[in-house]
């Protein structure tokens, strides 16, 4: 009975479950038919609407679009990320001196954020050309790859054709830099297109960016290169200690990776905020172009991006010039108390030189005004026939062109007959124009004034 009762109960519950399932299926069918027949839920436009009304997308299509993993990182974002990774790797190129954590973080953070903005903007240019070629608002991968390949070849050819030359002009260097940037931007756009074919576009974009960063870093061969201050020990020296190279610096700076990453991330985030503002400006310029020239804002994305980039670059250029002017103001002016030019004809700035004394920079005026007099040399050295030492100097403000400053210095050398002295020294100033006065005075004392010292300035900023 127990067994029979258990089986009887099981059979009754099974019948009830089947009945409930049939009832749910019938209700679902009625609801589905009702939704299909009701005009509000019909996918096709109702009969009283015009035929050109766009049908409402199906709910499942909207769900798939919302859950698309590539929506979190679009094509320009992947391009900018890959290009920024390449730029990040190159920031670890060894310097003449060792770098500290903060210095490396600032360099890496600013460079990465700036590169992201440049290469994401370059992707808009590739998209614009591809749209013109294909005749579609949203060009396909093949059109993008063709345009990217042509631009990469053009940029690489420009970079190879304008190789580095000593004393090259700024326009030539700018053309070479533009060629390399175009090539990197085009290759980054092509890599973004290839990774975008997959459903996991974000993950592949990050993976390619990481690989690009590692490859760029490896191209710098940091494990083989060394700072310019490194003094490698001679292995034949009996005092040589393996693994203990010396540096020609007072203090050798090391990089703390964790601290550098934190500071660099903060700087990159701040700079990226500026880039986001530039993106808003891009959309605004595209809408303005659409209202002025016609068409949709999407048709003027490249124009808006280039205009916004030009505005941002112009603002940055003006800001840098302002900062540079503030830094050079002190170093480019003669200090109070030194407004009287030298009276000796052997010193630049005197009346015989014909050069305006107030155009001397701070360091140049200091050096020229501190020339040792013959009486001082005789008093210190115990002599009686010391000569007036010659000091000639070509300051930065005397002539803007370096070739003109060279000609001016040579004229001063000829005027003072500096090469007829028993000793001649050409001093190399620091970035601010400072010449070591101790070395110069020692030279003048030991030679009894029978000497000439010359220097030419190239900057007023600290080196």
What secondary-structure arrangement, pairings included, does this model have?
Blueprint: H1 2-37, H2 59-66, H3 75-90, H4 101-134, H5 141-161, H6 170-195, H7 201-219, E1 230-231, E2 246-247, H8 257-293, H9 301-331, H10 362-369, H11 374-381, E3 390-394, H12 402-416, E4 423-427, H13 437-446, E5 451-456
Parallel strand pairs: 3-5, 4-5
Antiparallel strand pairs: 1-2
Strand neighbour order, sheet with most strands: 3-5-4
| Proportion in helices | 55-70%
Number of folding domains? 2
Radius of gyration: 37 Å
Distance between the termini: 104 Å
Our estimate of the beta-strand percent is under 5%
Largest sheet, in brief, is: 3 strands, parallel
The SSE order reads HHHHHHHEEHHHHEHEHE
What ranges have pLDDT less than 50 throughout 5 or more consecutive residues? 1-14, 17-72
Derived from helix and strand composition plus strand pairing, the structural class reads mainly alpha
Number of helices in the DSSP assignment = 13
Annotation, overall tally of beta strands: 5
The geometry reads as elongated
């Amino acid at each position: 009975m127990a067994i029979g009762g258990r089986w009887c109960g099981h059979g009754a519950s099974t019948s009830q479950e089947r009945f409930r399932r049939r009832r749910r299926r019938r209700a679902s069918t009625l609801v589905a038919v009702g939704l299909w027949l009701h005009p509000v839920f019909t996918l096709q436009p109702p009969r009283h609407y015009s035929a050109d009304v766009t049908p409402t997308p199906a709910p499942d299509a909207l769900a798939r679009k919302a859950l698309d993993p590539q929506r979190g990182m679009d094509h320009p974002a992947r391009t900018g990320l890959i290009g920024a990774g390449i730029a990040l790797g190159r920031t670890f190129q060894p310097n003449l001196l060792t770098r500290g954590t903060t210095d490396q973080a600032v360099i890496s953070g600013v460079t990465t954020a700036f590169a992201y903005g440049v290469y994401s903007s370059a992707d808009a240019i590739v998209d614009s050309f591809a749209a013109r070629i294909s005749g579609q608002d949203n060009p396909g991968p093949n059109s993008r790859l063709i345009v990217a390949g042509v631009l990469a070849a053009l940029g690489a050819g420009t970079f190879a054709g304008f190789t580095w030359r000593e004393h090259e002009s700024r326009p030539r260097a700018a053309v070479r830099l533009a060629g390399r940037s175009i090539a990197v931007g085009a290759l980054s756009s092509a890599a973004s297109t290839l990774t975008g074919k997959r459903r996991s576009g974000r993950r592949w974009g990050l993976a390619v960016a990481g690989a690009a960063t590692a490859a760029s870093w490896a191209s710098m061969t940091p494990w083989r290169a060394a700072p310019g201050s490194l003094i490698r020990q001679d292995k034949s020296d009996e005092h040589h200690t393996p693994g203990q190279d010396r540096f020609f610096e007072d203090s050798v700076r090391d990089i703390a990776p964790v601290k550098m990453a934190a500071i660099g991330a903060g700087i990159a985030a701040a700079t990226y905020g500026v880039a986001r503002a530039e993106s808003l400006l891009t959309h605004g310029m595209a809408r303005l172009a659409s209202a002025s020239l016609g068409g949709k804002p999407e048709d003027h994305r490249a124009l808006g991006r280039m205009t916004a980039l030009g505005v941002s670059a112009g603002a940055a250029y003006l800001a840098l010039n302002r900062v540079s002017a503030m830094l050079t103001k002190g170093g480019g002016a003669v200090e109070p108390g030194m407004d009287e030019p030298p009276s000796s004809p052997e010193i630049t700035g005197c009346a015989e030189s014909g050069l305006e004394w107030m155009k001397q920079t701070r360091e140049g005026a200091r050096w020229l005004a501190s020339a040792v007099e013959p009486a001082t040399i005789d008093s210190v050295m115990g002599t009686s026939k010391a000569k007036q030492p010659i000091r000639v100097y070509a300051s930065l403000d005397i002539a803007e062109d370096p070739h003109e400053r060279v000609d001016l210095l040579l004229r001063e050398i000829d005027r003072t007959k500096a090469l007829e002295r028993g000793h001649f020294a050409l001093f190399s100033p620091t970035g601010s124009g400072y010449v070591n006065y101790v070395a110069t005075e020692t030279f003048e004392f030991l030679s009894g004034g029978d000497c000439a010292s010359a220097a030419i300035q190239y900057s007023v900023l600290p080196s």
